[in-house]
Amino acid sequence: MIPIARPFIGPEEEEAVARVVRSGRLAQGPEVAAFEEEFASLCGAPYAVACVNGTAALHLALLAHDIGPGDEVIVPAFTFAASGNAVLACGATPIFCDVREDDFNIDVADAETKVNASTKAIMPVHLYGQVADMDAVTELADRYRLAIIEDACQAHGATYNGRRAGSFSTAAFSLYATKNVMSGEGGMVTAQDDNTAERLRLLRNHGMPERYVHTTFGMNLRMTDLIAALGRVQLGRLEEGNKKRHDNAAYYTQQLHGAITLPRELPGREHVWHQYTVRVNNRDAVRQTMVENGVGAEVYYPTPVHRQASFGGSGAPALPVAEKLAREVLSIPVYPTLTDDERATIADTLAAAVKGAE
Ligand SMILES: Cc1ncc(COP(=O)(O)O)c(C=O)c1O
Q1: Which of 77, 182, 218, 256 could form a disulfide with 206 if both were Cys (CB 3.0 to 4.6 A apart)?
Q2: Site residues for ligand 1, CB cut-off 6 Å
Q3: Parallel, antiparallel, or unpaired for β 159-160 and 47-51?
């Protein structure tokens, strides 16, 4: 079976973790500080604050912008539920908007129809590794004085007009086991100003600017040095890994051209291919055939978030593009460790499965 995800790790990761174990300093310490600096530099952001996972990173980002009860945050419906759950965790309300067919990302024109006096923030999600239309997001946010919280959990290293994900606003990244930079579990928030960075650090650590002095609310959402040591090695592999993902994506696009609807890298954007996601009719039958033939194909996501019971379910207003995409999308393996034979098998298996399901 060719799995849908496979880690891109080597002896350097083992050595880094062993170094921390031997040091006896396992909690947040110098590895976390170095990882934050390196991560911020990669994104072209002045600050990065590490935490336990991407969901916590989104939660911290929203809290740092004072999002709370009575506030609304506009979130694209075609995303992982964590984007909406982080808003609920603040006591605020996620208002879901539709997405675009060309990049699967937020439809800013639809988002604008949801803005009202309670709207405090907008959360573009850089789905599958392609940055959302940040010019349009920024223009809307400026016009209505909204905070922007990027959900960059799938977009490590992706660019938009030469700027990296995480450099536009306060942004959350996940370091979950399958991500382009991974540490098993982990999260990072980038910030563009000193005040936000300091608030993030306090919120992450019981509101303690110094030991046993609590100036504000906070939790324990700290990353450990063990995780940071692993993440630092992974960060060093990002350029190479993203290049391999890009090559694999280019191969699929060449092989499958004309057969089905393929994902597009829009002008001015560097997609980092966290997922390579095609659109097919009879999607469930195509997926079933692929799995039976040894190729792990997956659906991200079969139900748009506004249709989930925890967010309103069947009574939620229609968001037609998100609903259509949820019926048609299918992701195939695109990770850096795929061999040439494997990717040929994947492309052939998909083409045959699509033909068989016609
Ligand atoms: C778009 C998106 N947002 C948020 C998250 C949450 O990240 P984590 O799983 O690290 O909590 C993920 C992770 O899968 C994600 O893909």
Answers
A1: 218
A2: 53-55, 79-80, 82-83, 125, 151, 153-154, 174, 176, 187
A3: unpaired
In the reported structure, the alpha carbon of residue 213 is separated from the centroid of ligand 1 by a whole-number distance in angstroms of 32
293 C-alpha to center of ligand 1: Å?
Answer: 29
Mean pLDDT of the chain: 97
Can you give the pTM of this predicted structure? 0.98
Domain at 238-356, CATH homologous superfamily: Aspartate Aminotransferase, domain 1 (3.90.1150.10)
Q: Which CATH class is domain 11-233?
A: alpha beta
At 207, phi and psi to the nearest 5? 60, 35
59-107: pLDDT as tens digits: 999 999 999 999 999 999 999 999 999 999 999 999 999 999 999 999 9
User: In ligand 1, which atom is closest to the CA atom of 176?
Assistant: 10
Annotated domain spans of the chain: 11-233, 238-356
